[in-house]
Amino acid sequence: MSQSRYDLVIEKDVEIPMRDGARLRADVYRPKSRARFPVIANLSACRKDKLRVPPPYPEEVPNSLRRFV
Q1: Cross-strand partners of 63
Q2: How far apart are CA 21 and CA 57, in angstroms?
Q3: pTM for this model (two decimals)
Q4: Which of 15, 7, 54 is nearest to 32 (CA)?
Q5: Residue 57: is it exposed, middle or buried by C-beta count within 10 angstroms (0-12/13-18/19+)?
Q6: How far is residue 15 from each of residues 22, 34, 43, measured CA to CA in Å?
Q7: What letter does residue 23 receive in the DSSP assignment?
Q8: Which of the residues in the chain have pLDDT under 50?
């Protein structure tokens, strides 16, 4: 694995105001740099602290849930 070139900045519970008045919260992980970088976004309608990581192999998914994978 290559060595990272930037230190990491972690901002927890950053408030994001919506037009309808709702307030979303996000954790932002970014390089400590003023340069521009591409973004990887993980969005969910559920709690941000409960990331769901899918099983690595489809055969580990129960038959009753296969239509959702």
Answers
A1: none
A2: 41
A3: 0.55
A4: 7
A5: exposed
A6: 10, 21, 15
A7: E
A8: 68-69
